[in-house]
């Protein structure tokens, strides 16, 4: 942790964005650690929170574009080789395949909020030839929400970090699952309401 503070203190926002870029590019960097720390240090440096969120979202999109391009270029055979060479990749990649299915846009958005799949969905979307522009758009919404939540913890609540993280570590699976379910249900509710409004009136 002290190394992170030193890195952020020396290079500021550039170091924050580089680490977020690497995390979304599937390098072994934990967003649950990086983003709250980034929020805290950005607050100390006087960086406005909206600027931090926008910059971090752009960094995340740049990182996830790498995984998309790799998946698109190599397809399923490349992902199979990756899973054989790096066994730790197998579970999240297979989970991303199951989540993606034929749901496309909703899957890209929703998996951005699921710790197991969020950084690996790019490989799957690329391998399945999902349109790149649509992938970026729906990824941007999910990345923005995820980054905002974790950055906010550091930016506004870091003085209470020890108490918060003790509760978060204890209940994080429940919090993330319940939050994801509520979000997906809300999206389905909006879609159902839109379809209902588009139906012609009964004569």
Q: What is this entry, summarized?
A:
The chain is built from 9 helices and no strands.
Q: What is the mean predicted local confidence, pLDDT?
A: 77
Dominant shape: globular
Residues in β-strands, percent: under 5%
- Major beta sheet, specifics? none
Walk me through the structure:
It is globular, with a radius of gyration of 18 Å. Helix 3 crosses helix 8. The mean pLDDT is 77. It has nine helices and no strands. It has helices at 2-11, 13-24, 31-44, 49-85, 87-100, 105-111, 121-127, 132-157, 161-198. The protein is mainly α and 203 residues long.
Structural topology:
Layout: H1 2-11, H2 13-24, H3 31-44, H4 49-85, H5 87-100, H6 105-111, H7 121-127, H8 132-157, H9 161-198
Structural descriptors:
single chain, 203 residues, mainly alpha, globular
């Amino acid at each position: 942790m002290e190394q992170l503070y030193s890195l952020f203190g020396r290079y500021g926002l550039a170091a924050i964005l580089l680490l977020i870029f690497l995390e979304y590019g599937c390098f072994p960097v934990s967003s649950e650690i990086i983003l709250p720390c980034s929020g805290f240090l950005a607050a100390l440096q006087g960086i406005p929170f909206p600027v931090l969120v926008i910059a971090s979202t752009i960094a995340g999109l740049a990182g996830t574009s790498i995984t998309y391009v790799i998946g698109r270029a190599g397809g399923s055979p490349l992902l199979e080789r990756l899973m054989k060479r790096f066994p730790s990749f197998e579970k999240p990649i297979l989970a991303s395949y199951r989540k993606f299915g034929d749901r496309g846009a909703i899957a890209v958005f929703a998996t951005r909020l699921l710790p197991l799949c969020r950084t690996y969905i790019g490989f799957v979307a690329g391998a399945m030839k999902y349109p790149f522009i649509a992938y970026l758009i729906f990824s941007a919404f999910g990345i923005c929400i995820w980054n905002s939540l974790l950055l906010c913890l550091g930016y506004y609540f870091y003085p209470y970090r020890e108490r918060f993280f003790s509760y978060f570590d204890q209940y994080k699976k429940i919090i993330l699952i319940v939050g994801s379910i509520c979000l997906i249900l809300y999206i389905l509710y909006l879609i159902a309401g839109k379809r209902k409004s588009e139906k012609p009136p009964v004569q």
